[in-house]
């Protein structure tokens, strides 16, 4: 497969430079959960099952202790995990590869960017009111996106150093293709699509990936059940609330898209990677 950077960034570079879109494939953050025992790793991206997968890898790496202490993957939470911070973690793709044997299974979960954005906005700016007071834009979506876009531009142009609070906010809202060094790791990854309205399909995708590792059937089946149970997770927003906000701001969707990456499905042939028929998924214009 052609180098991902050549395939996406360069053909779009002139367009991006003349638009308000932030560029794709900025190497913002690399965090991988690993299980050397199963030659398995995953790319962690905030607001895409990050907490669940941290709990899952804790279960895979310390199963006996995990079960003995009555833990469950779907109820693990940051700050109260058996494996503190979701450890073990690797901070670069190269380090991840060195931690595993030949032909490792490395997977990523992707989510529609507007769904991911609204999930983060509800969680960080409405319910928990975190994230630097949401750039001093409490409950004001248009104000928040404008400030977020300015901060993303400032980061990749290196025109300012982000404060700790600004960085915390950006790491929950930066385009998903800014994570895990996709320029190098894309060809080595398996992708599954997150859909909070279709947990059965998501659970089967986890089974397919874990079976390649291979994780024993008993453990795979347990993880499958936990994927189905995770729909009631404490920090996952109520679907109705998310739907109401999405409808309220649908007329401003162009503002949201402006702050997302310029990469689309056709640019990276992501649908062929996932085995998705593009004609059946016309709404997925931006996925990473």
TrEMBL record:
Listed GO CC annotations: membrane
Highest taxon of source: Eukaryota
Protein name, UniProt field: Carbohydrate sulfotransferase
Naturally occurring in which organism (per UniProt): Cylicocyclus nassatus
Gene Ontology molecular functions: chondroitin 4-sulfotransferase activity
GO biological process, one term: positive regulation of response to oxidative stress
Xref: Pfam families: Sulfotransfer_2
Transmembrane segments: none
The organism's taxonomic lineage, starting at the top: Eukaryota, Metazoa, Ecdysozoa, Nematoda, Chromadorea
């Amino acid at each position: 497969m052609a180098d991902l950077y050549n395939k996406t960034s360069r053909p779009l570079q002139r367009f991006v430079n003349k638009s308000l879109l932030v560029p794709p494939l900025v190497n913002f953050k690399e965090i991988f959960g690993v299980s050397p025992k199963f030659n398995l790793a995953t790319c962690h991206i905030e607001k895409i099952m990050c907490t669940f997968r941290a709990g899952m890898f804790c279960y895979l790496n310390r199963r006996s202790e995990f079960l003995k202490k009555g833990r469950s993957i779907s109820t693990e939470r940051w700050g109260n995990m058996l494996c503190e911070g979701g450890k073990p973690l690797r901070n670069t793709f190269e380090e991840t590869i060195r931690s595993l044997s030949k032909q490792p299974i490395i997977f990523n979960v992707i989510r529609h960017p507007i769904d991911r954005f609204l999930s983060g906005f509800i969680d960080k700016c409405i319910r928990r009111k975190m994230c630097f007071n949401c750039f001093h834009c409490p409950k004001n979506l248009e104000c928040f996106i404008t400030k977020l876009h300015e901060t993303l531009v400032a980061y990749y142009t290196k025109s300012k150093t982000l404060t700790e609070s600004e960085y915390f906010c950006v790491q929950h809202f930066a385009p998903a293709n800014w994570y895990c060094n996709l320029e190098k790791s894309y060809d080595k990854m398996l992708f599954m699509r997150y859909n909070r309205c279709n947990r059965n399909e998501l659970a089967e995708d986890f089974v397919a990936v874990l079976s390649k590792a291979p994780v024993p059937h008993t453990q795979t089946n347990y993880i499958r059940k936990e994927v189905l149970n995770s729909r009631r997770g404490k920090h996952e927003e109520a679907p109705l609330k998310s739907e109401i906000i999405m409808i309220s701001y649908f007329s401003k969707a162009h503002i949201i898209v402006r702050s997302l990456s310029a990469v689309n499905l056709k640019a990276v042939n992501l649908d062929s990677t996932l085995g998705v028929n593009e004609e059946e998924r016309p709404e997925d214009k931006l996925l990473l």
